[in-house]
Amino acid sequence: MDSRIKAEVANGLLRVTVVGDWPLERRVPHWKEVLKRIRGREGWVKAVAVDAGEVGEWDTSLLLFLIQANDYSAKRGIPCRMERLPELVRQLLEQRVGDGAAKAAAPGASREPFFAAIGERFLAGQRGLVEWAAFLGECVLGICRMAVRWRKFRWMDSFSTMQQAGAMALPIVGLISFLVGLILAYQAAIQMRQYGAEIFVANLVGLSVVREMGPMMTAVILAGRTGAAFAAQIGNMKMNEEIDALETLGIQPIDFLVLPRVLALLIMVPLLTVYANLLGVLGGYVVGVGVLDIAPSAYWFQSREAIDVNDIASGLIKSVTFGLVIAAAGCMRGLQSERSSAGVGRAATSAVVTAIFLIIVLDALFAVLFEQLGI
């Protein structure tokens, strides 16, 4: 028996009756044919009812027709009732409609009460602090083991990391630092020129670069370049179960993976900071001599007068702390990574965000501390 449909609208109810066999190999009616039959009366439809009591043999074509009826009702926001469906069709349709409802409800379901959301964030922050404390404690224990058995420390891994994080980062650190010094000098010149005090551009650039911008820009660059690399490397090792193999062999991942990287950054970040300071001051020198017509000897003399040992020491103290934070954030996020490629990507992103956040917070704390100490 050929497949066909009957459609009528009465009292705001669109009743569709499905008749005949509905195999895939034949042409079967589409929901658009229902709309053609009720053209001009569609605005009166307040509900839909589909009756499948006269269906003979059926295939997925019947299921598709019923899904079209459900989609039409959902689009218009009106109820849809299915009557006398074959049991298997009813089960398949309920599964499909249930999945669609779950997806539609997902955004709303994810909303939680305001105070519950605050509580969840607070607990997540508390767990993060506990994880940081546990990780730093393991690092301290690893340093103690390294002090006792320093001959077994993986010095070659540390030297290799120094090369990757230090020597290979010289071009980008130098370029950024030079441009930062250039920008600071231009901005300072705009203000100093109003008072005829262009020579003090050297003071502003020198102090800004040595105390703040040199350590800060170096740390931010390494957080994005090296911190993310640490998280990705260790995350890949965790995904490939290499860390599990180390633990099975009785090797501490902290000793094998973390400490060589921490030592490398503790050494290289201060050295890169000194390099960044020199390039930043050189950028200010280029603007002072080339644009403001300051004598080269006068610029260098003014810079030396403005920068003293305390300024250099404060920048180096910051850089050591920043190096520790970058290495710790990268390694910890790598060890916490999920065992998937997406998890490794999220770990790398989290390492960069965590490191930069902690760098800025620590820089603010150092500013307050140095002000209180008069440094």
In short:
The protein is an alpha/beta fold and 375 residues long. Helices cover 72% and strands 9% of the residues.
Query: Distance between termini?
Result: 95 Å
Question: Helix content range of the residues, please?
Answer: over 70%
The order of strands across the largest sheet is 1-2-3-4
Spans of at least 5 consecutive residues with low confidence: 101-110
- Biggest sheet overview: 4 strands, mixed
Radius of gyration: 34 Å
Number of distinct beta strands? 4
| Backbone structural class | alpha/beta
- The quaternary organization reads as single chain
* Global shape: elongated
Task: Output the helix-strand order.
Answer: EEHEHEHHHHHHHHHH
Secondary-structure map:
Elements: E1 4-10, E2 13-22, H1 31-37, E3 47-58, H2 60-76, E4 80-83, H3 87-109, H4 114-148, H5 155-165, H6 170-192, H7 201-239, H8 242-248, H9 253-290, H10 296-306, H11 309-335, H12 341-373
Parallel strand pairs: 2-3, 3-4
Antiparallel strand pairs: 1-2
Helix pairs in contact: 2-3, 4-9, 5-9, 6-7, 6-9, 7-9, 7-10, 7-11, 7-12, 9-10, 9-11, 11-12
